[in-house]
Specification:
With about 160 residues, the chain is an alpha+beta fold. It has helices spanning about 25-40, 120-135, 140-145; strands spanning about 45-50, 60, 70-80, 80-85, 95-100, 105-110, 115-120, 150. β2 and β3 form a beta hairpin. It starts with about 25 loop residues before the first helix and ends in a 7-residue tail after the last strand. Bound molecules: nickel (II) ion.
Length: about 160
C-alpha cells in the first residue's frame, strides 16, 4: 500500500487542465493503485489525479459499491437536479451546498484501457461530476452557493 500526499486548496496543480492518457504503463497502474489506497485511507468517495499532483485525466470513485476507475472520462448525458452538501479531500473539514445533475451517464476507459459506460444517480452522479471537474481545474467551491464552512463529519467526498 502506498499513500500519496493529497494537495490542498491553494496548490496550483489543482487548477491545471489535465492531459489525456494515451497508454496505461506500469507507472499508470501504480498511480491508480496508490490513488485508491489514498482515497480509502482518507475515507473519501472519490479522488482525481491532480489531487495527488499528477496532471492526467484519471479519477477513482467508490461510493461503497466497489472501486470505479475512470481514465479520460467524458459525460455523455445528464439530467435532473440535486442540491446537497459536498466536500473534497483537498478542502479538508469543509463542506458547502452544490447543485448537481441527479443523473449522469459517462464514458471512460478502465485500467486496461477498455472503454465502458457508466450511469449513476444521486451520490454516484454527484461524485462523477465532482471528480471530472477536478480534471479541468474546477473545485466544488467554484460552484457552491456560498463559501464552504467547517463541518465535522466522517464521510467527506
Ligand atoms: Ni474533490
Amino acid at each position: 500500500m502506498a499513500l500519496r500526499n493529497i494537495r490542498i486548496f491553494g496548490d496550483d496543480v489543482l487548477r491545471k487542465k489535465c492531459k489525456e492518457v494515451t497508454e496505461v504503463t506500469p507507472r499508470t497502474k501504480q498511480l491508480i493503485e496508490d490513488m485508491l489506497d489514498t482515497m480509502y485511507e482518507s475515507e473519501g468517495v472519490g479522488l482525481a489525479a491532480p489531487q495527488v499532483g499528477i496532471v492526467k485525466r484519471i479519477v477513482v470513485i467508490d461510493i461503497g459499491d466497489g472501486p470505479v476507475i475512470m481514465i479520460n472520462p467524458v459525460i455523455l448525458e445528464q439530467s435532473g437536479e440535486q442540491t446537497g452538501d459536498e466536500g473534497c479531500l483537498s478542502l479538508p473539514g469543509k463542506a458547502a451546498i452544490v447543485k448537481r445533475p441527479n443523473y449522469v451517464k459517462a464514458k471512460a476507459y478502465d485500467e486496461n484501457m477498455k472503454p465502458y459506460e457508466i450511469e449513476g444517480t444521486e451520490l454516484l452522479a454527484r461524485a462523477i461530476c465532482h471528480e471530472l471537474d477536478h480534471l479541468d481545474g474546477i473545485l466544488y467551491s467554484d460552484r457552491a452557493e456560498s463559501e464552504p464552512v467547517d463541518v465535522q463529519y466522517d464521510d467527506e467526498e
